[in-house]
Amino acid sequence: MQLIDIGVNLTNPSFADKHQAVLDRAYAAGVCQLILTGTSVEGSEQALELCQQLDPDGQRLFATAGLHPHAASDWNADSSRRLRALFSEPRIRAVGECGLDFNRDFSPRPQQEKVLEEHLALAAELQLPVFLHERDANQRLLEILRDFRDRLPAAVVHCFTADQRALFSYLDLDLHIGITGWICDERRGTHLHPLVRNIPRGRLMLESDAPYLLPRSLRPKPKNGRNEPAYLPEVLREVALHREETPEDLASHSTACSRAFFHLPEIA
Hints:
Layout: E1 3-8, H1 19-28, E2 31-36, H2 41-54, E3 61-65, H3 77-86, E4 92-101, H4 109-126, E5 130-135, H5 138-146, E6 155-157, H6 164-172, E7 176-179, H7 192-195, E8 204-206, H8 232-243, H9 247-262
Parallel strand pairs: 1-2, 2-3, 3-4, 4-5, 5-6, 6-7, 7-8
Helix pairs in contact: 2-3, 8-9
C-alpha cells in the first residue's frame, strides 16, 4: 500500500537536522513520495535544495513554490523573478502555497488578492497546477479563481477545513481537495466526517501538513507533539472510515490522484 503526502513543511525549523530520519520513518510507514510545501520564496528555494540533497535520484521528493498569503506583504518584483526561476526546475511541480487567509489577516486583504492573482497568472502561463490555501475567504477566492480557471491545468484546495457550501463550490470549479489530520480532531473536525464522502474519486488527496495538525486520534502520541508524514496512515484510516471505504481502496485511488496531479513517477 502506497501513500503520497501532498503537503509537508519539511523546511520548518522543527525538522532541522532531522530530515533523513523523518523521511526514513515516512518511507517505512508506506509514504513513498512527498511534496514539500513552499510558503515563501526563500522557503521554496530551501525545499528544492532538500529535494536535491535527500533524493538525488529524483523519484520521491518534489516541491511547490510560492508565497503563503500570510507573507503577501513581502511580495516584490524580485519575488516574481526568483519564483519564475524555480519553476524551471523539474522538482517544482506546482505553484503555491498561495491563496487567501481572512482568518488572521497577517497581510492586508488587497495585497493577498494581488499576490494570488500573480501566482495564478504564472500558473496559467507555465501550465502548472496550483496549491491553494483558504481560510474564511471562500467567496473571494472563488471570484478570483473563476477568471483563471479555464487556463489552469488543475488546482487543489489544500488542508480543506470549511463547510459543505465551500466544498461543493470548489468541486463545481473542478478543484481537487486535500484532507489533513484536521478530520481526526474531535473538537473542530467532526463536520468533515459526512463531507468527505462527497469528494469524488480522482479529486481527493491526503496530506500531513507536518509539523502541524498532529492527528488527535493517533495512539500513541509522540511526546514532542510534532506531526510527521509517517502519521499519514492515521489520516487515511479516519477518511476511509467516513467514506465507508477500506484503507487499501482509499490509498489506491488517492495515491493515483496525487500522482496524476503532480505528474509523479511510479514507485516500484
